[in-house]
Amino acid sequence: MNVRRSAAALAAVGVLAAAAPATAAGPSPSPEATVPSGLYGKGDPTYDGVWRQSLTLVAQRTLGYEPAPAAVDWLTGQQCADGAFAAFRAAPDKPCDDKLKADTNSTAAAVQALAATGGRGGVVEKAVNWLKSVQNEDGGWSYYPGDPSDTNSTSVVIGALAAAGADPASVRKSGKSPYDALPAWSIPCDQDGGGALAFQPDKKGELLPNADATAAGLLGALGKGFVARAGQAPAEDTCVKATSRTQVADNAGAYLAAAVGKTGHLESTLPGAKAQPDFGNTADAVVALAANGRTEPARKAYAWLEKNASPWAEQSGPAAYAQLILAAHALGEQPGDFNGTSLVSALNSQGPAPRMDTSGGQHEEEKKESRNWGWWVFGVCLVASIGVGFLLSGRKKQQP
């Protein structure tokens, strides 16, 4: 059951270690940092402020909420003069410089968020123009402009272009679009990890399977951003040579389906450390698998998250809650009851309270629910009127 129902339903029910961007920007932040007003979460925002705020606003809009003006203002205030966004600007009144490097991931995330909230067309257009200006000659994007392209950055920019109303296929550099770049990171079927995507070639030029990049690349190949719904099942259920972006997505879906098939989750393995469940990437995989039409493995992974991910989300903060909400949305599940936890209330409590959007700009699911609710009320009234009719009829028969 989808949470995007009605104001009454939402009132009743009340990501990437917190969905981190593709590339780490430095050492672990200090927990003593001051969190600005309007920003969601209590953790140090130095390396993820714009990212977590963007995911939060996207998730709220997906639920049918209108984000708090203070939250939207905080995000727009992070934009640099050239249109780009950095991970976090502690002093927005000071211009961006070489010490505060803007990146494609933060910029693309902000575009998706501000396009969803609406009313910030100038900010979105400026950010998109900046993204276009730093496209690489292979058609893709890197985390920082000037570096080699990677799957994650290219994919999050594809999502931003689509959210802003631009066709990613028409955004080209040296004649190549981002859809031309993705197949280069798709691992051939006859190799270990066949069908998966690599983040980018390693120093030896080899492609190594990366679950995070695979989920991101799948969505990118489909032209999707953070928000996706269950799509049509792929024509091929196994890995075949990727000659198109559709096949890149289908191969990636086959790899992810197999990866979550046994345990229901992905794993994160650090050198010298024991493999651990990867909550954020598993949530990514749910969205990607659903978008690829592989709903059975997606539901298995979501069920595992329901049983195990609440402590992770509570520790990680708003981006994690947002990503679980987007996973629920992809499958039409109810984030207001996530194994007894309301992801909706948990997310909204992390910052300034949003309000239900009553402007009439509902998503199609919300319109459908409104119609269903109307029929339900009509049915109740009809049954009640019939009951009253029988009662009155019986009384008349008893009168002398």
Overview features:
two-stranded antiparallel ribbon; two-stranded antiparallel sheet; disordered C terminus
Give me the count of strands.
4
Order of strands across the main sheet: 1-4
Multimeric state? single chain
Mean pLDDT score, rounded? Answer: 86
Helix content: 40-55%
Straight-line N-to-C gap: 53 Å
**What is the gyration radius calculated from CA atoms?**
23 Å
Can you write the helix and strand succession as a string?
HHEHHHHHHHEEHHHHHEH
Indicate the structural class.
mainly alpha
Q: How many helices?
A: 15
Q: Any low-confidence stretches, pLDDT <50, length ≥5?
A: 1-19, 23-32, 361-400
Query: DSSP strand (E) fraction?
Result: under 5%
Let me know the largest β-sheet.
Answer: 2 strands, antiparallel
Tell me what you see in this structure.
Helices cover 48% and strands 2% of the residues. The chain contains 15 helices and four strands. A hairpin with a 7-residue loop joins strand 2 (266-268) and strand 3. Helix 4 (104-117) runs antiparallel to helix 5 (121-133), helix 8 (211-221) packs parallel to helix 10 (279-291) and helix 9 (245-261) crosses helix 11 (295-308). It is globular. It is an all-alpha fold. It has a two-stranded antiparallel sheet.
